[in-house]
Write a structure and sequence with these properties.
The structure is a single chain. The protein is of the alpha/beta class and 321 residues long. It has a domain at 5-171 and 215-243 and 278-295: Rossmann fold (3-Layer(aba) Sandwich). 45% of the residues lie in helices and 15% in strands. It is built from 10 helices and 12 strands. The strands form 4 sheets. It has a 6-stranded parallel β-sheet with strand order 2-1-3-4-5-10, sandwiched between helices. A two-stranded parallel sheet has the order 6-9. Strands 7-12 form a two-stranded parallel sheet. Helix 1 links the parallel strand 1 (9-13) and strand 2. Helix 4 (80-100) runs parallel beside helix 5, helix 6 packs across helix 10 (297-320) and helix 8 crosses helix 10. The N and C termini lie far apart (56 Å). The model has no long low-confidence stretch (mean pLDDT 94).
Length: 321
């Protein structure tokens, strides 16, 4: 059943986050009749009463659930209990209260971390239950995977329309650069820029460099979410990505060249690589709702590095003033 955004009121959880900001922009461009972005300072989605208050006040036709407690390998290793508990609560309460509130459709955004550690490459949606996720992000991946279980159960018992998307690793301008919590691309860009400014001879990169990842530009991910909202009502989870993988050592070298850092990259194999490989079969998304990623990795990295360089220049100007 096609959704008419120009006649719909949409609620987006996690609207102030990296992906959320892009999704809100894309929904506005697509002509959403009205839109409400949920921010944690206004509604704590870990509390069921606040989720109910949100939905009773807004009475949305559509809900996009993006809110998550998320981070890179280091953050996952430090806080697996928190990542599991808070993501599980938010997803469970948002879907249950959306059902009770008569929401027409819920778009649940999961994670590539839900796939088995040794999934066959490229990852195919029908194989998502074929093993346990990689240990460093298993708690997060399993908590988000429960949205798929809940969606299937609610479709079977209540006829509730919930779809489940599995995006690749996201990147782009505006992503969290905090070295304690960030993902690989913003962390590398930040460290390369800092090392360049200090005149350092080298930077250390976590892991062997041999693990691979698939990266999806954030605006492409937002496009996929809006297309799925408008065109897809199925029970099957759907991968969202580029369908291409790159080894971390190759990625790090691309970023070193893009930043212009002349020092060495030193890989530290004593630190975890995380999942050995990640690459998605993206044919289902193209077939079911016409999504195909548009932003080549090199172009996305160029935009990303330029954005972080501009931020670093502003920060330096602020310190000097």
């Amino acid at each position: 059943m096609a959704i008419a955004l120009d006649r719909s009121h949409v609620v987006v959880t996690g609207a102030g986050g990296f992906l959320g900001r892009s999704v809100v922009r894309r929904l506005r461009e697509a002509g959403a009749k009205s839109l409400f972005g949920v921010r944690r300072r206004d509604f704590d989605l870990r509390e069921r009463s606040q989720v109910r208050r949100l939905l009773e006040a807004q009475r949305p036709d559509l809900v996009v659930h993006l809110a998550a407690v998320v981070g890179g390998i280091g953050a996952n290793l430090r806080s697996p209990g928190r990542f599991f508990f808070e993501n599980l609560l938010m997803g469970t309460y948002v879907m249950e209260e959306a059902r009770l509130a008569g929401v027409e459709k819920l778009v649940a955004v999961g994670t590539v971390c839900s796939y088995p550690k040794f999934a066959s490459v490229p990852f195919r949606e029908e194989e998502i239950w074929d093993g346990h996720p990689e240990e460093t992000n298993a708690a997060y991946g399993l908590a988000k995977k429960m949205l798929l279980v809940q969606g299937d159960a609610y479709r079977a018992e209540y006829g509730f329309n919930s779809i489940h998307l599995l995006p690749a690793n996201l990147y782009g301008p505006g992503q969290d650069p905090d070295l304690a919590t960030s993902h690989v691309i913003p962390a590398l860009v930040r460290r390369l820029l800092d090392a360049q400014a200090r005149g350092a001879d080298e930077i250390t990169v976590w892991g062997s460099g041999r693990a691979s990842r698939e990266f999806l530009y954030v605006d492409d991910a937002a496009e996929a979410i809006v297309l799925a909202m408008e065109r897809y009502d199925g029970a099957e989870p759907v991968n969202v990505g580029m369908g291409e993988e790159i080894e971390i050592r190759v990625l790090a070298e691309k970023l070193r060249e893009r930043v212009g850092f002349e020092g060495r990259l030193v890989f530290d194999p004593s630190q975890p690589d995380g999942q050995p490989r990640r690459c998605l079969d993206t044919s289902r998304a193209e077939r079911l709702f016409g999504f195909r990623a548009k932003t080549p990795l090199d172009e996305g990295l160029r935009r990303t590095v330029e954005w972080y360089r501009e931020q670093a220049t502003k920060e330096e100007a602020g310190r000097s003033s």
